[in-house]
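Appendix B. Raw example, untouched.
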Amino acid sequence: MALLWSPQPMVIPRPELPDKEVGNPSMPVLAPRSEQVLGTQKVTATGYTAGVESTGKGPKHPQYGITYSGVKVRRDKETVSTIAADPKLFPMGSILYIPGYGYGIVADTGSAIKGNKIDLYFPTTKQVYKEWGKKDVEVQVIRQGAGKCTEKMLSDLADAINVYKSVPDSWLDKAI
């Protein structure tokens, strides 16, 4: 067998990159089943960040990115994100399904978050305005919180949603 050789270098074309970022092909979370919904509540939902524009804290502040409950803020479209709510309406640890946002666990409060208002965490202000803004939505209450939210609760819930793409009944039955 003879190998072909050419004095001309071979030019391999670069692959074309899409103009915009390709979305994550993984499956998004599923809305809860009707029997899992304890009730619904119409709220005005806005977005917030960990930054000075939302919290008054900069990256060098020791409490930067830390919620009222003590957990680190997080946005995960495929599992669960931290949200702020009025604890009189949604106690810490409450699990909500927010259409267009996904599952949220109440881990934070806010000076302007009173009554039927919730604040959804986003990593940047650009994402707040591009992905959400301000919307009136009907949230579904999946679990009423017991007044606390811990990193373990958040991690366990994220793991369960990652596996089942929704909150499994077995997780809702757990005492936390």
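End of appendix B.
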